[in-house]
Amino acid sequence: MGLNDSWNRLSSWHGTNCCQWSGIACDNTTGAVLAVDLPNLRSSAISGAIPPNLGNLSSLQFLDVSSFSSNVDNLEWVSGLVSLKYLNMYSVDLSKYIDLSLNNLTGSLPDSIGQLKNLVELRLNNNLLQGSIPSSIGNLQRLTTLTLASNKLNGTLPDSIGLLSELSSLDVSLNKLTGVISEAHFHSLGKLENISLSENSFILNVSSNWVPPFQVIALEMGSCHLGMSFPSWLKSQKQVHVLDFSGAGISGSIPNWFWDMTSSLAILNVSFNSLEGHIPNPFNIISYATVDLSFNQFKGPIPLPNVILLDLSNNQFSGSIPENIGQVMSVLSFLSLSGNKLTGAIPASIGEISLDVLDLSKNNLAGSIPSNIGNCSSLTVLDLQKTICPCSNDSNNGGDNYPDGGGKADQTDNGNGFIDKWFYMSIGVGFAAGLLLPYLVFAMKRSWGGVYFAFVDGTAYRLSSEKMKAAARRRNRGVR
What we know:
Elements: E1 4-5, E2 24-26, E3 33-37, E4 46-47, E5 62-64, E6 86-88, E7 97-99, E8 121-123, E9 130-131, E10 145-147, E11 152-156, E12 169-171, E13 176-181, E14 194-196, E15 201-204, E16 218-220, E17 242-244, E18 251-253, H1 256-259, E19 267-269, E20 274-278, E21 290-292, E22 297-300, E23 309-311, E24 316-320, H2 325-328, E25 334-336, E26 341-344, E27 357-359, E28 364-366, E29 381-383, E30 388-389, H3 421-444, H4 447-476
Parallel strand pairs: 3-5, 5-6, 7-8, 8-10, 9-11, 10-12, 11-13, 12-14, 13-15, 14-16, 16-17, 17-19, 18-20, 19-21, 20-22, 21-23, 22-24, 23-25, 24-26, 25-27, 26-28, 27-29, 28-30
Antiparallel strand pairs: 1-4, 2-3
């Protein structure tokens, strides 16, 4: 439904030059709309839906639509007003939907927010909000979505959250929240499907025989303290697609029943714990999943699930890298086996995988580096430091014995397979192809560009963040 102007107040709104319209102010140089001033719309008999294409006014600094006489079901367009300095929506009915994410909002959540009892969705993520979450939020009995992620909120999570019986999505991740999460917080949340509590300092305290009232699809509790052993209540969840228990203080082995529920997982992250034991090989998980088991104490041979990302770094895996890794893990893009106790040679089939990242550093591998790694045209990160031991039978080949497991990268192979100029040339050609091919493809198909660069950005962020996390945990343990 468009605007209804029964009193003809917007009679000047015709023609293509909107800068001449009543209530519109523009930049004299660029012609960009800077202000939309339409106060007291109710008294002017203007009604209908606020046009969402207002969100296209990226230079808009002033917007006054106070006393608008229709309720607002969608505020997604507000996030497009990146230059906005003043917004007046006084007396506008926002009783169902509030999305003010990504707006640099400051201040705290008022206790009066609990008076919006018809509110269905509340999205205030990616702002600069501080203070605590008011307990009055439990009055929003129709609320289905609560997203407060990526703010600076502190204090505890009120247990009145557990009264929101219609809630399907709860995201308070990336804040400074603390305190105990108990069964009361989930008491009436039978419709809850998405839980994200990650990157806070919560302590989960539930009974050993607790059965959650919900069936979640996404369960993100990274950095929450979940207890010393693997949470037994997870056994009741039958449709989990995303599971993040990273940095959760869990020790011991992963129970056998867990591996029976991994077939539905698309994301599995149990990194930065003290988990131990063997990993089933193979274990069932969907193709194109991401698996992060890094920074634990897992032992035995490395598992080979057919996934897109596999991080087994900083464990105690031993044995050799299986010869058939290239055939078994055909969709793999990211592989990190760094910081384990792997021996033997790098299998040639690893060059058959379209890898973006390959990290085999800090192992005890021996022999030559397969020249067909140069065929990995998409390879952007290759880390072999302190991993290749030059174990030639010829004691007079001029090589050095490197106690840290590293060898000279420029040493000639004399037929024994050490890195040579052909390897470097193939890597160079592959690197050039990796740069040029995406450019040519995206020139023809722009919509693919966002997906590709999001993946590259995610990979870079992942590498840097994991290094920072590892450094932080070493500092906490007194290790330098």
